[in-house]
Amino acid sequence: MTEPAPKTRIQKKNTGVILEAALDVFSQHGFRGATLDQIAQASGLSKPNLLYYFPSKEAIHISLLSGLMDTWLDPLRRLDPGGDPVDEIVGYVRLKLRMARDYPRESRLFANEIVQGAPRILDQIEGPLKALVDEKAAVIGGWAEAGRIAPHDPHHLIFSIWATTQHYADFDVQVRGILGGGADPFSEAEAFLTGFYRRALEPR
Asked: How far out from the chain centre does Cα 189 lie?
């Protein structure tokens, strides 16, 4: 099978411009609400030029989601079985919250895909994502069995961390509307969540 020719500098640049524009459009409108015309307009390229790089709206969406999955899972991969259990889990909370702060569009893109039933990434969820979560849940379960952390269902502990951290990206308007004053909620959220999980995890 012939290897595809490497992309030129212009091709790499335009691909990046398209993906960046698509991230804005998809995170605002979801997959169903987004159109190729919107993405083309946001990228500053013509629709035929866009279709030269990606054959369809779905191809752009899948490209974004594939890159996102790898980035999104990296903090969980870093959970070190040889580290201090409470520090490792609290550190994971901190990393997930900082990702919500730094990558809000990516978080909303992923949330929109999940709400729609994950039609384009279900195989990744049931495959690599499940394998990684099961692996780290076994580590957390082992810590609990050894009395190094308070006993909690490890899968639901991971789910709760996802929910409490990604909330600040997915519901940013709600959070800022309630808190008011234009303040950045993330520093207060980090202090609250790291303290909350540390207290919940300390062995009794």
From this structure: 18
Sign of CA dihedral 46, 52, 55, 58: negative
Distance CA 149, CA 108 (A): 32
Q: Report the CATH number that the domain containing residue 136 is assigned in CATH.
A: 1.10.357.10
pLDDT tens figures, 1-17: 445 556 788 888 999 99
At how many degrees (to 10) do helices 57-77 and 36-43 cross? 70
Q: What is the CATH number of the domain that holds 18?
A: 1.10.10.60
Range of the domain at 46: 1-55
Query: 177 and 122 in one domain?
Result: yes
**Single-letter amino acid, residue 17:** V
Q: Tokens in use for 79? A: 């959970």
Rounded CA-CA distance 40/21 in Å is: 8
One domain for residues 72 and 159: yes
Report pLDDT digits (tens) over 100-147: 999 998 898 888 888 889 888 899 899 999 999 999 999 999 999 999
- Asked whether residue 74 falls in the same domain as residue 150, the answer is yes
| Predicted local distance difference test score (pLDDT) of residue 1 | 45
Q: Is residue 60 part of a domain?
A: no
Query: What's the count of helices (H) and strands (E) in the chain, helices before strands?
Result: 11, 0
Please state, as a whole number, how many other Cβ atoms lie within 10 Å of the Cβ of residue 157: 20
As for how many domains the chain has, the answer is 2
Residue showing tokens 């960046």: 20
Token pair of 133, please?
Answer: 């979560």
